[in-house]
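for the writeup, i need someone to sanity check this before i put it in the appendix. the sequnce is what the collaborator sent (i think, or maybe the updated version? ugh). structure was predicted straight from it, no edits. if anything looks off just tell me and ill rerun, i have time this weekend
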Amino acid sequence: MTSLQHFQQSPHPENAASSEGAAHPYIPNSVPAVRQAMLDEIGATSVEDFYADIPDRIRLHRPLDLPPPLRSEAELTRHMNALLDRNTSTRQVLSFLGSGCYQHHVPAVVDEVVNRSEFLTAYAGEPYEDHGRFQALWEYQSMMAELLDVDIVNVPVYDGFQAAGTALRMAGRVTGRRRLLVATAIDPDKLSRIEDYVRPDHDVTVLPVDPCTGCADLDAVHAALAAHDTAAVYADTPSALGIVDPALPRLAELAHETGALYVVGCNPLTLGVLAPPSAYGADIACGDIQPLGIHPSYGGGNAGFIATRDEEHLVAEYPSRLFGLVPTEVEGEYGFGDVAYERTSFALREEGKEWVGTAAALHGIGAGVYLALMGPHGMREIGETILAHTTYARQRLARVPGIEVPYGDTLHFADFTVRYTGGRTAAEIRARLKDHGIHGSLPTGVHEAAFCVTEVHTKADIDRLAATLEEIVT
């Protein structure tokens, strides 16, 4: 008899099967009686009550498609390698995918530092006297604050989507208002995450952008703010269309005129060539640090930042950790640790304003190394390169018969959209590009798609994309 069989057949009542189900040998609190006691304690009728908020349309309604039991480490290794071999990385093909997870060059020094044993964990700092890790994250915060021209930047949260949701909830607590206005084009996945995160405290209103320019419709924003019930106006730069909206400063004025805060999500890699959100009136800036030395990893490799002025009414609403520099008892010595720790759920537990996670701290250390390597000149050079590549790609694809590149001469950064007019759908063209060893053309509509170029692409790469599209677009 195996140890697993022995466990399953144990005569002890806490491990025995019952008519309500069986205890799992490795999952805590799976004994039916224990599970029922927990449900009774919180007033739930079944575990299903916890999933009531998950829309039915995205629920599986069938068992997971799992393989037969794997009874050895060798079998498990072979199975996992077979799954991994089905993936194609951006190192194997030419990729023009973007929309939130970008292919950038990651200097070898970044990998060398983050793979050191004293850093190689997602946790923000354990043990809590780990002042070396605290200093590394403080250095990251300091460089991000300089890049964003603000006073306060948090230890990274899970991703840019969560950072946006958290920033908007912060604005709601500051203003005491419920409604949130989204003024620029926004990625549907990001919008879904924000809406889920701000419930039940806020209602999100997404205003359509100007169809001719892709920019914010200022008249619509002004009308929506007339009721003076808006907690925050939210804008992305670049927007989901890749557009750097010239109306960004005016959105700040409109928000502030009605007592709302202005929250701007931004790609930090733009800030070597574009003004930071604080320069045109943003009260809170947020975004994802994935472009700053973090490898794309199966759609992940993300971490979110939130940034504000050093004003008490804003800082008090940060739910996440903030590391600071303070003098110690030893003359001339300094230490690093939590600032205003009592804000966080670590101190307040269930009374906290929001839950604090720690899974992205390692990415903060990587981004700090990246920023230190790049410096101001490097950040400007990479920004200029991406702007130039984006401009060339839009102009080059606009010359392909059967392709229109909308929004005229509006400034774009990395991401941009195209329309196919030759009869084939965006999904069909994406599939045919894949046959040619090119990943891109992410469908955003039946005949619309998004591309992305960064500093890793060359003129020859863009010309190859254009030549391939000329063959397959009609």
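The first strand starts at residue 94 and ends at 95. The two ends are 65 Å apart (CA to CA).
thx in advance!!
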